[in-house]
Amino acid sequence: MERLAVAKVNLGLSLLGRRPDGYHELHTLFAALTFGDRLYLEPIPQGIEFRGRYGKRNLAYRAAALYLERAGFPGGVRIVLEKALPEGAGLGGGSSDAAQVLLGLKELYPAEVDLFALALSLGADVPFFLLGGGAEARGIGERLRPLALPPLPVVVFAPGLRLPTPRVYGEVKPHDFAPELPVEEILGALARGEEPPYWNSLEGPAFRLYPELKEVKARLRGLGLKGVLMTGSGSAFFGLAESEEHAEAVVKALRHRGFVRKGILGGPHVPSGNGAFPL
Ligand SMILES: C[C@](O)(CO)[C@H](O)COP(=O)(O)OP(=O)(O)OC[C@H]1O[C@@H](n2ccc(N)nc2=O)[C@H](O)[C@@H]1O
Ligand SMILES: Nc1ncnc2c1ncn2[C@@H]1O[C@H](COP(=O)(O)OP(=O)(O)OP(=O)(O)O)[C@@H](O)[C@H]1O
């Protein structure tokens, strides 16, 4: 079985405050894209054979171990992971891989397992990838409301700087907190091809850690992209192109400067039979 583990961008990410458990309360709009990693899963009598980096620490491996244990070890799986997404870029690569392993194993070995709970235990971004498409998220990212997004051409650029998520969150200061995102205004602007009124509260901490990221943002704006924003905890940025041709021209201009890909917002929807997602 072959599965595509797509990337995500955050169409705005507002940090509302710090929670007692040390995590941050956030309000964000997730948008899956149309490119990502590839995973090949096939059943084997027992155990987990994994081909990919980090061995048992890989999120894909950990997702398989968790599912098989909760499903009562119905069999085993061979997983081959072909990475295409840069790591530590804020594109949700590892989280997306983990979600696709959970969905794939549920197809191979159907069982009464709460995929949502397993996903959340693997990471804050994993539950969204059980849904795909677009979603408004609250909490640490586990309270999801599906959203219909307009299929817009997007360019993603990662300047080859690994930004560990805990490090960026660790740099958050009280003045980085902000109000809730104006969701309806953002969706309206996206639909009209205007500059969306969104922000990413993690840009402050990330730019304090790596000031050169400001130039990256300015360069993408200089290439005519709208709504240029860092995604997740960075270091990747995305911007909205006027057209596929514009997106292609931007990709050519950035080709030798890091990871650059064009895609379409709103990506593949996953059949929603994965339980309720309380917002
Ligand atoms: C930045 C985002 O990608 C936005 O989508 C997510 O908030 C982070 O999702 P993620 O990479 O799956 O994050 P996790 O692996 O769950 O958490 C990594 C670390 O980030 C910090 N963290 C994460 C999410 C959150 N709402 N508040 C936090 O403070 C915590 O220190 C946590 O230990
Ligand atoms: N399957 C995987 N793909 C990529 N990184 C993985 C994977 N499994 C574990 N990791 C580890 O997790 C770290 C974060 O991976 P990931 O690519 O999800 O970061 P990210 O793109 O910033 O995601 P997010 O948007 O959730 O912050 C990597 O730096 C790597 O050490």
Automatic annotation (TrEMBL):
Listed EC numbers: 2.7.1.148
Reaction it catalyzes: 4-CDP-2-C-methyl-D-erythritol + ATP = 4-CDP-2-C-methyl-D-erythritol 2-phosphate + ADP + H(+)
Family that this chain belongs to: Belongs to the GHMP kinase family. IspE subfamily.
Entry superkingdom: Bacteria
Function: Catalyzes the phosphorylation of the position 2 hydroxy group of 4-diphosphocytidyl-2C-methyl-D-erythritol.
Domain GHMP kinase N-terminal, residue spans: 58-133
Alphabetized InterPro entries for the sequence: GHMP_kinase_C_dom (IPR013750), GHMP_kinase_C_sf (IPR036554), GHMP_kinase_N_dom (IPR006204), IspE (IPR004424), Ribosomal_Su5_D2-typ_SF (IPR020568), Ribsml_uS5_D2-typ_fold_subgr (IPR014721)
GO MF, one annotated term: kinase activity
Active-site residues, as the UniProt record annotates them: 8, 125
Keyword entries, A-Z: ATP-binding, Isoprene biosynthesis, Kinase, Nucleotide-binding, Transferase
UniProt-annotated binding residues for ATP: 86-96
Protein name: 4-diphosphocytidyl-2-C-methyl-D-erythritol kinase
Every GHMP kinase C-terminal domain range: 198-256
HAMAP family recorded: IspE (MF_00061)
Lineage: Bacteria, Thermotogati, Deinococcota, Deinococci, Thermales
Species for this entry: Thermus brockianus
Gene: ispE
Pathway: Isoprenoid biosynthesis; isopentenyl diphosphate biosynthesis via DXP pathway; isopentenyl diphosphate from 1-deoxy-D-xylulose 5-phosphate: step 3/6
